[in-house]
Amino acid sequence: MDYKELGFKCGIEIHQQLETHKLFCNCPSIVHDNNPNIKVIRKLRAAAGETGEVDVAAAYEQAKQREFIYEACSTSSCLVELDEEPPHAPNPEAVQIALQIAKMLNAKIVDEMQFMRKTVVDGSNVSGFQRTALIGRDGYVDTSLGKVGITVICLEEEAAKRIKTDKDSVVFRLDRLGVPLIEIGTDASIKTPEHAKETAEKLGMILRSTGRVKRGIGTIRQDVNVSIKGGARIEVKGFQDLKSMPKVIEYEIKRQQQLIREGKNVEKEVRKAEEDGTTSFLRPMPGASRMYPETDIKPITVEAAEVEEVELIEEKTERYKKEFKIPDEIAKMLARSEKALWFENFVSKFKNIKPLSIAETLVSTIKEARRKYTPKVDELGEKDFEEIFNLLDSGKISKESLVDVIADFAKGEFDISKYAQMSDEKLEKEIKKIIDENKGAPENALIGRVMAKLRGKADGKKIVEIVRKIIL
Q: What's the predicted TM-score (pTM) here?
C-alpha cells in the first residue's frame, strides 16, 4: 500500500497515569477499590464553551438523558471527587513529573500553567467537565523514519471508571477519578501504520524512563487519529495493545476507501477499536466549543530551568552494558524494570557481589522463584532484597540458594539455620562420602549429585574445586 499516494495522515494521543496522589486533593491514587461505602446519583448537562456554543459531542451525550450513579470509597475519594468541594492546589509532584516529560520530549514549556475545563457529560466526570492544563508544545521524538512532532503536552485529571451500563443509567466508581494524567499529542507526520506503533513504543519508553508513571492494564491509553485523501479525520480509541495498532489503522484506511468509492461522505467521528481489528462508531468528533476557563485554580508560574534531567531507558541500557558488563538482554529488562533504582543502590552497597549477579537476581532469579514456588514473590520490596543481598554479601547464604531464600522471604518462612554454610572441613567430608557412593561416575555427574545434595550449604565454585581435588 502506497501511503503517500493515499494522502495518509496519522497522529497519536497518549494518556498515561502518573504515580503520585490525586491531582486536586490528597487522596491516594488507588484504582482498584472494590468495597464502596458512598453512593451519589446525578444527571449532567452540557455547558456552553468559550465560543458560546455547546459542543456537538457533549450535546450528543446529554440527549441520552441517562442517570449517573457514582460509587466511592472513603479510602480513595473525598468531597473534591464528588464535586461538593472546590479543587485543592494542583499536586506539585504531578506538575514536576509532567514538566520532566515535556523536557524529555524537547518541548517548549509554558511560562504559566492555566487549567481549563473540558466539557464531558458522558458521566465519567461528576462535575460535567475535566480539568486540563497545557504544559508544553512544539516538541518531537526521533524515530527510524525521522522526527515526529509533539504538538501538545497536557496535565489533566483521570476520569471515573465505568462499572455497569444499561438503557437509563450508568454506574461509575470514583477511585480512579482525579488520578493525575499526562496527555501527549503528536502531529500528523506518522508515515505508515507500523510507524505509528514504533512512535507509540518510543513515547511509552520515554514515559517509563521517569520511573514515575503507573504500570499495568488500564494505566496507559493510546488513541490514533487517521485520515486519507477524500476522507475525514477519525479518532480511534480503545487499543487493547500496541501490536493491534497497525491492523486497526489499515482497517480504518480500507473503510474510508470503501465509503469514498461508494460516493458517500466520510464523517468526522470517534470510533472504537474492536478486538478483531475493526472499528465501530462511538460518538461525533468533539471540537473547541467544549473548552472554557477554570475559575477555581490559580495559574502556576513555571520555572522550566529547574526541571531535573532524566536518563532514558535506552541510555540506561547502554550504560549498564558498558559500566557493569551486563549482557544486552538482561540490561534491557533491568533498565525497563522498576527495580533499576534498587540495582544501582545494591551495586554501590554490596562490594562482594558482582553487578551481574545482582542484575540476574532482580531480573531472572525472581521469575524462577515465582514460577517454582509462589506469586507472593512480587510483593517483596527493596528492603527485603537489601536484607537478602546483605546475607549473600556477608557469606551467610550462597548464590545457589537464592531462589529458595527469595521464596522463603515471600512466604514469611525464612530461617537462617536452614541455609547455614558448612565449614570447609565438613564440606570436604560430605563430598568424599558422595563420591565414594558413586564410584566410577564421570566428573560432571559427580558434581551434579554433590550440588543437588549440598545446594545452598556452600558456594558452588568451592564445591567444584573440592570435587576435582578429591578425584584427581
A: 0.80
